[in-house]
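It is worth pausing here to work through a concrete case rather than discussing structure prediction in the abstract. The textbook approach is simple: state the sequence, then state the predicted structure, then interpret. We follow exactly that order.
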Amino acid sequence: MPAYDYDFFVIGAGSGGVRAARIAATHGARVAVAEERYLGGTCVNVGCIPKKLLVYASEFADAFADAAGFGWEVGAPTFDWSRLLGNKDREIERLNGVYERLLTAAGARIIRGRAELAGAHAVRINGATFTARYILLATGSWPTVPEIPGADLAITSNEAFHLARLPRRVVIVGGGYIAVEFAGIFHGLGAQVTLIHRGDALLRGFDDDLRIALGEEIRQRGIDLRLKSRVTAIARSDGHLRATLEDHSTVTTELVMFATGRHPNSRGFGVEEAGVALDRDGAVVVGEDSRSSVESIFAIGDLTNRRCLTPVAIAEGHALADTLFGNRPRTLDYDNIPSAVFSQPPLASVGLSEAEARRRYGRVDIYKSAFTPLKHTLSGRRERTLMKLVVDGDSGRVVGAHMIGADAGEIIQGLAIALKCGATKAQFDATIGIHPTAAEEFVTMRQKS
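Step two, the predicted structure:
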C-alpha cells in the first residue's frame, strides 16, 4: 500500500497551481488539486484575461476618433456594456473548461471545495482528510481594502468585472497597475474618472521617466489625476456616493473602486497551525526551491510575494514539479523578468530602472528617445512615445529597457530575450531596425542623455 493517498496535493487551481499539478502528473505523480472558487485563479477569472479584454473594448473609442484623420467618416458609436460582459463571460467559461481538461487529461484529480492543512502531510476538504507526500500552497492573493469609514460601499477589481451597468462617474483609489488600467478602461468606455493616489507618481517600482510620462498622458486624456491625496471616508449622499479626501474636499461619484494593492491569501487555510512560517505581510516564507519552513510543504506565486506575475507563478510551478517528480532539479532566475501595464498608452519594462542601475553599477549611460508616433501625425492625437535604455557604463551591457507607447508589451518582450542573453549597447547598435516602426528606435539611439 502507498504510504500516502497522493504524491502531490495542490491547494489552489490558479495558473501556477495548475501548471505544477499538470507537470507533476505527466511525470507520473499521483496528483490532486483543490479549488473552492474557479479554475484558472485570479488571472483567468478576475485579472489578466478579462481585464485585457476590457482594455481592448475601451480602445475602440480612440480608434473611432482617430479614423477621421485617415479619411474615414464614422457615425456616432454606441456601446453596450451588458453585451461586452456577456461575451467576456463566455470566453472565461471556455478557459475554465480548458484548465479542467488540461488537469484531467494529465491524470490529476480535481476536488471542489475549500482545503485546509491538517498537518505536514495532510489536507482536510469537504469533511474528508487526504494524505500527501508533498503539499503545494498556491492560493494567490486578494485585494486589500483600506480600513476607512464606508469602505464597504466600494468595490475592488474582483467586482469590477461583474457590474450590472457601466457607471457614469468613477473614483479609483490607487496608483498601481490595476488602478491605471481600470482608469483607462472606464474612461475609454465613456465614464468620468477620478484617479486618486497617495504617492507623488504612479506605478512605484517602474522607471521614473515612465512614471512621470504616464501621469502626463493620463491627464491629457481627460482623467482627473490627483496625486499626494487619499480617500479618508465614503458615504451615501442623495443616491450617489461621496468620497471625502484628506484635505476635506469631496468627490461625488456613482462608484468607488479600491485598487490599493493585494495581499497574500494565506489566512484560513491552517497554514500557521501546520507550522508554516509567514512574513509580516502574511506571505509564505520560502527558499529558492519554493520550500516552506515545513519540509514537505511548498508555496509559489503571489502567496510568496516574490514577483507577483502570472508567468512567474507558472514558471515556479513548473520548476517545482520538475524538481520533485521529473528528476530535473532547478530554480527560477528572477533577473530580467519583463512586465507590462496595459494602461493607455501601455508601458512595459525589463531589467533595472535608471535609479536601480545607478545604485548597483555607479557609472551608467542613459539613452532616451521621445517622439510622436507616425500614426498620430495624421490622427492628430497628442500622444507621445518614450523609449529608454539603461547601460552599464563599464561593460556596455544593456541592463534596462523601458517604453511607454503603443505595443510596448509586444516590443519589450523581444528585448527581454536580448537582456537575458547579456546583449551590449554595441550589439543593439549593430542591429538593423525595421522601418517604419517604433521598435527601431531601440537600435538607433546613439546620443547619451
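Step three, interpretation. The longest strand covers residues 128-137. The chain has three domains: 6-142+263-325, 151-260, 339-443.
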